[in-house]
Amino acid sequence: TNKRNWVIAAMNEIYKQKKLRDAAIMAAEANKIQVVKAAEAAAESAQLQGEGIARQRKAIMDGLRDSLSTTGGEDIDSTELANMLLLTQYFDTIRAVAADSEAQTVFIPVGLGVIAETAEQIRCVTLQGAPAQLGMRSDTTTRPPVAPS
Q: What are 111-122's pLDDT values in tens digits?
């Protein structure tokens, strides 16, 4: 009888451990599904946000172009329009940093020509960033090779 009880207890333990293993696998799969769905939702949200920002920038450029062409009678070139959009994005960035950042202090340069200098710096960083993204150094694209002396 003692041996029979031992066998029954062992079989019950095997069954219990199998069910615990199955439950752990199901819980892990459910967690995996939640993580994957959250990542998919974040990716879709970022895509929609990017599309929204692109539409917003296009609307700003169209509005600036229309406003300037109707008031001055003179067409505005694409460089000036891009500079105005860059200025708008600069102010939007400053507003976002002030609203969402945990920073206590933000230094903003002020003075004559600061906007033009900032626009030029952003333009340079953007243009230098493109070769860097391709794995190239930006300084090698503008300088000719130097002969050894």
A: 767 777 877 777
Whether residue 55 contacts residue 87, with contact meaning beta carbons closer than 8 Å, is answered with no
Cα–Cα–Cα angle for 100, 101, 105, rounded to 5 degrees: 135
Which of these, 66, 65, 85, lies nearest to 126 by C-alpha position?
85
75: DSSP letter? P
On whether the CB atoms of residues 65 and 76 are closer than 8 A, the answer is: yes
3-state secondary structure of 112: coil
pTM: 0.48
Residues composing the chain: 149
Q: What does DSSP assign to residue 142?
A: T
Angle between helices 78-100 and 2-72 (to 10 degrees): 140
